Amino acid sequence: MLSLLCGFLSFLFFLVNPCLRLWTQAKKSLKDEKEIHEGAYVVEEEETPTGLLRERMPRHVAVIMDGNRRWAERAGLLTSQGHEAGAKRLMEFTELCFKLGIETVSAFAFSTENWGRHKIEVKCLMSLIERYLKSKIQFFQSEEIRVSVIGNLKKIPESLLGTIKETEEATKSYKKKHLILAIDYSGRSDILHACKSMVKKSQQGLIREEDVDETLFEQELLTKCTEFPSPDLLIRTSGEQRISNFLLWQLAYTELFFSPVLWPDFDKDKFLEALISYQRRERRFGCRI
User: Fold this and answer.
1) Active site residue ranges
2) What is the pLDDT of residues 6-20, one digit of tens each?
3) Cα–Cα dist 180/184, whole Å
4) How much is the CA Rg of the chain, to the nearest whole Å?
5) Which percentage of the chain shows pLDDT scores above 70?
6) What pTM value is reported for the model?
7) Contact at 8 Å (CB) between 127 and 135?
């Protein structure tokens, strides 16, 4: 009787075991598929791509987004469509930076020299920046991203200025992620403004000559809004190899990466190439180790 029972149980296990394996595999497949859909574009916060060390990630990445017009021309599109594609790329780039643990992103959105472009293009750029900021306020809040805008801003349209103030006010309490947009920005003007401010404070008796050092000077620069005013890595796209009056003081010991790729095509893989290049460098800051 016992042998008959054992034989029956063995037969039952033989029938059920394949079904259990299929059910387990199906469950795992559904889980994997769900994870893929939830994190499709970029890596999750706890992941680090192969070839990169999370502990060596730059804290501050600056980017000169060059090539939008050429990208549009090559694609047979309007210049405005090129800038639209560039704005979309910036948001994707920023999200990826924060998920990789990079704390500050600075983007050269509009230089003081850009006022010399055609009025229609300038108007288009001002409108695009305003529209993107308005449409992304809830996203910035949900992701706890602080947004700051640096630059002269005196010639900025009133409607955009209002949107800038609204965005900065809505996100000012966030600490871990910081997006800095440079609009009507000039590195030379930034340094000149800091010098004038310190002269004025000296005349008022607020500071003495012996008080002046690099730390005090940096507190007068527009990047005083961030905990990490000096970028660790600057990326410029489109093959140009110059810094074009961007963060002149702050870039003193920044690692530079020049890519031939036009900004709208500077995707995740291209950015990871820049990060791998950065992590392979030995940063000595003028000292021999």
Assistant:
1) 66
2) 444 444 444 444 444
3) 13
4) 26
5) 83
6) 0.83
7) no
